[in-house]
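Example record

The entry below shows one chain as it appears in the dataset: sequence first, then structure tokens.
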Amino acid sequence: MGFQDSNYSIYEKIPCFITGRLVYDTDRERIKQKLARFMVEELGYYLDDFVVDRDILIQVGGVKVKAIVDLSVVVDGKTLMILRGGPGSVVTRESGTVAAARLLETDYIVPWAVQANLFDASILDVKKKKAVAYGWDNIPTRKELISMTSQWPPPKLPEQRVPVERQILYSYDTHG
């Protein structure tokens, strides 16, 4: 049978709705593309509001992991909300998404987060660390998000919480 080319992938490539670049058509990518299109076409967001695939580098027990925030909503230089997608239950991934929102920015906790699959979404109040609504129809519009984040700046993550949030994110992004 021989060796396969290391550049070979079982995934086809599709154009990214935000950047136009070709990306692999994975479950996570399908969710990201659907979210972006929905938010622009239905909720009034601008393509320029999105930052795609932001990395959070974490190290736990000598193991380095790169966690990814699929989409960040940035308005006037402030990250107001993050969105992460994955197949399966949105509820089981909420804690990892909250941890990502608490770690992404060094100066403040990103106040809102969304964990989504292709059919459902949980809208997360990051400060309270809990879901406030479920369903794609409950993702805030751009105007609502700006109003929801009018009390700026949000708090900074206490330094003693940083290793705890890193452990949570590590656990969710490496185990499930």
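Notes for this example: The chain has a mean pLDDT of 92. The two ends are 33 Å apart (CA to CA).
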